[in-house]
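[09:14] KT: can someone run the structure on this one? pasting the chain below
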Amino acid sequence: MKTFYKLLVVTLVAVTTNNFVWFALTYWAYLNTKSVISTSILAGVWLTISIFTANWFGSLIDHHRKKTILAGSGIVTFILFSAGLIIFLTSPANSFSTVASAWFWLFILIVLLGVVAGSIYNIAIPTLVAFLVPEDKHDRANGLFGTVIGASFAITSVASGIAIAFSNMSFILLCGLVANIISIISLLLINIPEAKIIHNPGVRKNIDPKGTFKIVKAIPGLMSLIFFSTFNNFLGGVFFALMDAYGLSLMSVQTWGILWGFLSLGFILGGLYIAKKGLGSIPLRTLFRANIATWTVCIFFAVQPSILLLAIGIFVWIFLSPFIEAIEQTIFQKVVSKERLGRVFGFAHSIEQAASPITAFFIGPIAQFFFIPFMTTGKGAELIGSWFGTGPGRGIALVFMLSGIIGLTVALIAMHSRFYKLLSDEYKK
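[09:31] RB: done, C-alpha cells below
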C-alpha cells in the first residue's frame, strides 16, 4: 500500500502536467480560431489516437516492468512537448489563427501525441491496484485514484484558463516540460516490487487482441458492460467536443477555468466517498443509478443560458464520474486474471473510446452548420426561442438536451437487461 500511495503522488504530477497542456491547448484553439470545429476535431484526433494506442499500452504494461514503461512514457512526452515548443516559436506569423492552417494542425498533432503518451497512467495504475492492493480494498483504492484524477482536474482547470488568458502556448509547454522532468525523477525514486508484477513468462508476449477478446467474451456480461460504456462514450463525445465552446459563450476564459477548478472538487469528493465507503455489494447497480442521474442532469442543465444551472449540472456530473470509472475498474480487477489485466483494460479503453471520435468529428460541423443556425435565425428560434433563448449557445444547448434524453432511455433499458444479472452474479462468485 505504501508503494501505491507513492505512485499516486507521481500520478498526480504526471496527469496534472498532461491535463494542464491539454486544457490550455483546447482553450487556445477555440480562442484563436473562434470555431467549434477546431475543438471538435481536436477532441476527435485525441480520442482516435487514444483508441489505437490503448491496446498497445495494455500489452506494454503486461509484458514489461511497469516502472520502465511509465518512465519511458514520460521521456516520450518530454520529447514531443519540446518539438511542439520549437514549432510554436519558429512558425510564421498568423500561422495559428485559422483551422485551414497546416501549421495549426501540425502543432496540435505533435502536442497531442505528447499528451497521449502520458495517458498510459490511466491504464497502468488500475492494473497495479490488482497487484499492490488487497482485493477487499480494490474499490477504495480505485476511489483514491479517482480522487487524484479529480485533484488534477481541479488544478489544471484553473491554471490552464488563467495561463491562456495572460500568456501563450510557449509558456504552457515550458511549464509542462519542467513538471514532466519532476514526475520522471520522482518515479525513478520509487521502489516497485517488480518481481510480483512483471508479466507471466508463460503467456505470449504480444498484443494478442484475439486472445484478450476471448477472455472478455468468456466472462458473462463483461462484453455487454464494455458495449454499454461505449454507447455512453458515443454520447459523451458531444459534451467532450462542445462543452468548452458552450461555457466560453457564457463567460470569459478566466472565469470558465476558475469555475471548472471549483466544480472539479466534485471529482475529489466522489473519489473520497468511494475511498471511505466503497461501492457496495452490487457495484453494477450503483453504476446504472449513477448513469441515470448523470443523463437526467444532462437534459436540464442547459435548458436556459444560466451559469448557475450549468455549474450545478457539471458538479453533479463530475461527482458521479469517479463512481462510473471505479465500478468498471473494480469489476475488471475481480473477474479478470492479473496477467491479462493490462490488456483487458487497454482493450476496454480502445473499444469504449471508439465511439467518441465519431461524435466529436461530426458534432462540431453539425452544431456549426445546423443547430447553431437553427437556434439563431432558423425555425428553432421561431418555435422555442421565446422561452429557450436564441443564439449559438442555445444551439449547442439543444444538442446537449437531445443527448441526455437518449442516454437516459438507454440506461433505463440496460438496467433491466439480462447482462445486468449475469455480470452481477459473476462478480459475487
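[09:33] KT: thanks! The chain has one domain: 2-192+219-428.
[09:34] RB: yep, looked fine to me
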